[in-house]
Fold this protein.
Amino acid sequence: AAMAKGATKVYGQGDTEIRALDDVSIEFYDGQFTAVMGPSGSGKSTLMHCMAGLDELTGGEVWIGETELGQLSRRELTLMRRDNVGFIFQAYNLVPTLNAKENILLPQMLAGSDVDDAWFDEVIEKVGLADRMAHKPNELSGGQQQRVAVARTLAARPLLIFADEPTGNLDSRSGQEILDFMRRAVREYGQTIVMVTHDSNAAAYADRVVFLADGKVVADVADPSA
Amino acid sequence: AAMAKGATKVYGQGDTEIRALDDVSIEFYDGQFTAVMGPSGSGKSTLMHCMAGLDELTGGEVWIGETELGQLSRRELTLMRRDNVGFIFQAYNLVPTLNAKENILLPQMLAGSDVDDAWFDEVIEKVGLADRMAHKPNELSGGQQQRVAVARTLAARPLLIFADEPTGNLDSRSGQEILDFMRRAVREYGQTIVMVTHDSNAAAYADRVVFLADGKVVADVADPSA
Ligand SMILES: Nc1ncnc2c1ncn2[C@@H]1O[C@H](COP(=O)(O)OP(=O)(O)OP(=O)(O)O)[C@@H](O)[C@H]1O
Ligand SMILES: Nc1ncnc2c1ncn2[C@@H]1O[C@H](COP(=O)(O)OP(=O)(O)OP(=O)(O)O)[C@@H](O)[C@H]1O
Ligand SMILES: [Mg+2]
Ligand SMILES: [Mg+2]
């Protein structure tokens, strides 16, 4: 579903150079739920942003399906992402002037898609936000904002989802609802999910765990809860 | 150190009324490390903001030391907070135009305090940010930004600290460094820390755990790791 080959991302130069990604080669397979773990600052968000085409590499290549992202124009990249990739941001990136419902439906509005009402209802039910739809982000708790970000991506049902610490601000029960739902999306709808997490309980829901440290892949474990 | 009596916070009115806090009475004792847990949306951040004087109650009273916050003018409240209370925000609230060092020293600059250089060095060492001081928030990872927010409060060494999910975006090792440091601050310097967390491993560092649900205190447990 998605692949990186020799991916390198460097900030700054000379003595102050930071190698956020250092020659990373990794493949995420169709219909699999992969967790990505590693210390704070090890390159997880950078890897996700570059593989989703939200950020440019300094070196190496990234593919989504058969398409190498470096070959695309900005417009082609935006369209490809819009139609194929969902991204749940570590900092949520909600629109402050829109309420929860508008935030959740925004990607589908922008893409001109027909909204599947039954699916929308199921998603907001699963994330526990049914009674919060009319509220703006600043009228929601931290965890409620995180759940709006999660719902926004799940509602659009993209084939490939990058989730950057989707349960970091949730109590274990709310978090489990979302993780169960994601695992179901992979099993029943064949979606591919790549999830960054610091929580080993969350990683246990995945089929595989990839570990980063200092911008490199240092371990790759199948079936972590086996 | 801090106390709430019949604290109530209501948003909206009539059918759409939300009781974020519902008649909460609780006392946090000097020199103790208390964890506050509960489901997403249960009122934890609201309780912390009201007890720190960052938000007004709809009913009831809150005290810091001998002072009932409702009696203070805005100016007196700001001064009291500046000199006595530290707050680590769930969303960090860093200044985007200042680098890490400037963000960390900002409260002390505003208060006109003398900066204890040895303490500053120890704090940034403990949170693992020594090589990140010149970076602005948008040049830092999510967890690094969280650590800047933590360092900002710890560097000023206030007697009373409210920490709203200070390790939510950190791997377990970075998180433990900070929790160890906080527990030391309580044991060695007599500081009082009230920490909201969703992580029971983090709560295990505390002397006491208070549980909220639907804006009420539902449990209060001493020595949770005993
Ligand atoms: N301005 C507002 N208008 C309406 N409701 C609000 C407003 N601010 C907060 N709330 C509601 O008050 C309740 C408590 O919010 P609070 O932020 O204290 O929860 P929390 O326990 O910190 O949750 P989390 O663990 O998700 O951070 C939530 O249901 C939230 O939606
Ligand atoms: N614009 C930038 N300039 C300089 N360094 C940067 C910039 N953006 C990110 N970095 C650095 O790149 C490294 C990797 O960042 P990244 O956000 O990928 O980490 P992460 O693994 O997601 O961490 P966390 O778990 O804290 O979210 C970090 O050390 C960070 O400071
Ligand atoms: Mg990150
Ligand atoms: Mg909160």
About this structure: The CA atoms of residues 82 and 111 of chain B lie 7 Å apart.
